[in-house]
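Re: How this chain folds, sequence and tokenised backbone to follow

Filed under: protein folding, tokenised backbone structure, sequence and structure records.

Contents: The amino acid chain and a row of whole-number tokens, matched residue for residue.

Body of memo: The sequence and its backbone structure tokens, given next.
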Amino acid sequence: MQGIKCVYVFLVSLNLFACAATGVRYTDIPPVQGEGKAQVVIFRESNFSGGGACYQTFLDDKSLGFLANGGFLRETINAGEHKVSLLEDKAIFNLDAISGGRYFLEVKTQYTLLSEKQLCKPTTSFGNTGFIFCLLEVKEQEALQKLKALNDSSEKFNCMNKQ
């Protein structure tokens, strides 16, 4: 019986780790070129919690694609106001982009029943069964450190569940 449990745990773990972005690693690009242009990078560190799901990501109600576990999506945008959202407005970040700006938004998952510190504001998160998800703006230096370990979700990804 012990052997069966070990095999089960191994197979579940393997399946969850297989559900990840498998595109090319993040590489920094030169500053944004073009008058009136900015750049937004949405990323999600690799986590066991929610690892099998990919989140459909939107910019101004147009799909950018699915954000996989351990992945990122990058988009050049026009300067001005934009709405970045997950799962059709269940997690929203309003962005006021300036020309030449680079913006980094991290998808966070938090289990509220065990957390002492609330990461997500209620207006920018959604959740059920104690889990909430949100988009948080991250400073460029912190984001670039995290992005080194992430893969492009726009090219290749594996998901157990597309949400």
The helical segments are 2-18, 140-147. The longest helix spans residues 2-18. Residues 4-20 have pLDDT under 50 and may be disordered.
